[in-house]
Amino acid sequence: MMGALALLPLFLAACAGGYVVARPRAESDRSAWQSGVGGMAAILLVGTLIAAAEAGSATARYIALIALLCASVASVLLLGVPERRVSPDGDGDDGADA
Amino acid sequence: MIPPVGAAWLGVQLDGIDPSPVVAGAYLLSGLLLFLGLWLRTGRRGNRWTMAGIVTASAAAVYSHDVVNLPEMVSAVVIGGSIGLLLARRSAVAALPWLMVAGHGLLGVAAMAMAATLWRNPGAFGLTADDGALLTVGFALGAMTLAGALALAIGRRPGGLALIGSGAGFAAAMLGFAIGNSAMVMGGGMAGVAGLRLAWRARRIASRALPSGAGLP
């Protein structure tokens, strides 16, 4: 808990930064899911990597690998989907496979 | 003994087996890149800064820990990344918002599984009984994120995306507190508060768009 308290100022500074940066911007023509804010939460991938690296027992290791698998899929989805080029009317796309 | 608060502030003394200033610097750099990504969020470039921040923090995490099961970890990342890439590249445009919802739901599952791993193996992470509260909050936030994603998918309403993103961010921050990882605390805090503010603004805009009722038949 002492360690958590030591990180509290960093957390509060990050919260203040997040509040200030998420200010209204009328000039954007990108919809909410394209804005890339969702990709920020993919930082959870770091925690699952650490959990998988440090897991001692067999059960903990399997659970950590499941967490890592889910976090990998989620990270690529949350960071990759906003990279798709979609025209403003919503029917164009540079993904040749779509 | 007074704990080294200055160093702990940067995650040097807390995270991992190797207390290295390089790792602490990489986590701080990652936090700055994530902040830049959020700052430039309306353009495509912002997403790429966020990617750079997450890759930096992941590399620092793998570097700073004594990884015993690297083949399994690489396999999980390659399989998961391939599935995600395939879905992100080949899905129809109309399905893209739902892929974002699914991504947040999977992050909720990952947060729950990570909290369960820490519960099963507290000695490896130096967790005390007090850290159990942080793990409980992280697990609960992950479960709420998953439930929110399922509710959005069933109700066919992708508008609540910012709110479930906020839940996933705060879950990451709580689990980051538990293991003493400064990058997770910074990224999770920023994602959580930014998601809450964006969700609040979207709600206000939606309520303004509705007719007030006065003058209606």
Number of strands of chain A: 0
Strand content of chain B: under 5%
Amino-to-carboxy terminus distance of chain B: 73 Å
Of all chain pairs, the largest interface belongs to:
A-B, 83 and 115 residues
Number of helices of chain B: 8
Helix-strand blueprint:
The complex is a heterodimer of chains A (98) and B (217).
Chain A: H1 2-21, H2 44-54, H3 58-80
Chain B: H1 5-9, H2 21-39, H3 44-64, H4 70-90, H5 96-120, H6 131-155, H7 161-179, H8 182-209
Question: How would you describe this structure to a colleague?
Answer:
- The complex is a heterodimer of chains A (98) and B (217).
- Chain A is mainly alpha-helical and 98 residues long.
- The termini of chain A are far apart.
- In chain A, helix 2 runs antiparallel to helix 3.
- Chain A contains three helices and no strands.
- Chain A is flat, with a radius of gyration of 18 Å.
- With 217 residues, chain B is an all-alpha fold.
- Chain B has eight helices and no strands.
- Chain B has helices spanning 5-9, 21-39, 44-64, 70-90, 96-120, 131-155, 161-179, 182-209.
- In chain B, helix 2 runs antiparallel to helix 3 (44-64) and helix 2 (21-39) packs parallel to helix 8.
